[in-house]
TrEMBL record:
<feature type="binding site">
    <location>
        <position position="127"/>
    </location>
    <ligand>
        <name>FAD</name>
    </ligand>
</feature>
<dbReference type="InterPro" id="IPR001433">
    <property type="entry name" value="OxRdtase_FAD/NAD-bd"/>
</dbReference>
<feature type="binding site">
    <location>
        <position position="194"/>
    </location>
    <ligand>
        <name>FAD</name>
    </ligand>
</feature>
<dbReference type="InterPro" id="IPR017938">
    <property type="entry name" value="Riboflavin_synthase-like_b-brl"/>
</dbReference>
<dbReference type="GO" id="GO:0006696">
    <property type="term" value="P:ergosterol biosynthetic process"/>
</dbReference>
<keyword id="KW-0560">Oxidoreductase</keyword>
<feature type="binding site">
    <location>
        <position position="153"/>
    </location>
    <ligand>
        <name>FAD</name>
    </ligand>
</feature>
<dbReference type="Pfam" id="PF00970">
    <property type="entry name" value="FAD_binding_6"/>
</dbReference>
<keyword id="KW-0496">Mitochondrion</keyword>
<feature type="binding site">
    <location>
        <position position="152"/>
    </location>
    <ligand>
        <name>FAD</name>
    </ligand>
</feature>
<dbReference type="GO" id="GO:0005741">
    <property type="term" value="C:mitochondrial outer membrane"/>
</dbReference>
<dbReference type="InterPro" id="IPR017927">
    <property type="entry name" value="FAD-bd_FR_type"/>
</dbReference>
<keyword id="KW-1133">Transmembrane helix</keyword>
<dbReference type="InterPro" id="IPR008333">
    <property type="entry name" value="Cbr1-like_FAD-bd_dom"/>
</dbReference>
<feature type="binding site">
    <location>
        <position position="145"/>
    </location>
    <ligand>
        <name>FAD</name>
    </ligand>
</feature>
<feature type="domain" description="FAD-binding FR-type">
    <location>
        <begin position="72"/>
        <end position="177"/>
    </location>
</feature>
<keyword id="KW-0472">Membrane</keyword>
């Protein structure tokens, strides 16, 4: 489990390690990819929403924003829909009072959730990155894995349609713009994939953005890998720009990719050299993973010093961002 993260040798990646394809991208329609990037009901997958927030004439529609930051207080939203995604993960849709309004989030940003039980002395407050598009009117969606002794994730998993939850935000994270970096690398564990997905969705929905993306994603078992089909679609559609590597703490005998935790050997094999021009490495996962890979943040506004595997491999503090 990532909660007890330790240095452990990952076995050879076998089929998992590969270079970017030198062949030209397929000219097939991109519609299957776009259709594959939002959660499809009972199948438990995601497909990209096509809503652009624009009128048919191409003129942007000025939509109200639900979360405006600053001095705005907590906003309570009604839970409208729940979908079971995996054995311990659900997708929650929270509706806005105004069906034409958007969340107010941007890439990259997150929001806070708050809940105070009848016997709690203090409220539980936790940050989440929605998986719905920032331009989606009428609702936002959270992808939440229930963790043992996780008060907020347990509360969410116990919620019923019609109940309400407090939200606040947006919380600005890493300001993104097209082609800000030549190559970004996403090192994620568990539900730390959600801010990474927010970045990936933005990059590959923008035809002007040519950024290369490498994803390294660690989980306990294969069924814990969230959004795997979406990332596979990206690899097939953009073989010269996107590649993903997976490693499992408890793999099956048939698992062909990485085995063990994300470690030095794996990252040295799949990440670009530290001297590579204009790269950025993003890290998000459980506390033990931060400690091993990059060192923890001091606070939301203080990234802290770079330590761990990335420091040992020669990357600089300026090349790494901790979500």
């Amino acid at each position: 489990m990532f909660a007890r993260y330790a240095f452990r040798s990952a076995q050879p990646l076998a089929q998992g390690v590969r270079k970017y394809s030198t062949e030209a991208p397929q000219k097939a329609s991109r519609a299957p990819l776009l259709a594959g990037l939002a959660l499809a009901g009972g199948a438990g997958y995601y497909y990209w929403q096509s809503t652009s927030g624009e009128t048919p004439q191409g003129v942007p529609k000025d939509r109200a924003k639900v979360l405006t930051g600053g001095d705005q207080g907590w906003i309570d939203l009604k839970l409208a829909k729940i979908e079971q995604v995996s054995h311990n993960t659900k997708k929650f849709r929270f509706e806005f009072e105004d069906p034409e309004a958007v969340s107010g989030l941007h890439v990259a940003s997150a929001l806070l959730t708050k809940y105070k039980g009848p016997e709690d002395e203090k409220p539980t407050i936790r940050p989440y990155t929605p998986i719905s598009e920032e331009s989606q009117p009428g609702y936002l969606e959270l992808l939440v894995k229930q963790y043992p002794n996780g008060p907020m994730s347990t509360h969410l998993h116990n919620m019923a349609v019609g109940q309400r939850l407090d939200f606040k935000g947006p919380l600005p994270k890493y300001p993104w713009e097209a082609n800000k970096h030549n190559h970004i690398c996403l090192v994620a564990g568990g539900t730390g994939i959600t801010p990474m997905y927010q970045l990936v969705r933005k990059i590959f929905s923008d035809p002007e953005d040519k950024t290369k993306v490498t994803l390294v994603f660690g989980n306990v078992k294969e069924e814990d890998i969230l959004l795997k089909r979406e990332f596979e679609d990206l690899e097939n559609t953009y073989p010269q720009r996107f590649r993903a590597f997976y490693t499992l703490d408890e793999p099956s005998k048939e698992w062909p990719m990485g085995k063990g935790f994300i470690n030095k050997e794996l990252l040295k094999t799949v990440l670009p050299e530290p001297k590579t021009e204009n790269i950025k490495i993003f890290v998000c996962g459980p506390p033990g993973m931060y400690k091993a890979i990059s060192g923890p943040k001091v606070s939301p506004k203080d990234q802290g010093e770079l330590t761990g595997i990335l420091k040992e491999l020669g990357y600089t503090k300026e090349q790494v961002y901790k979500f």
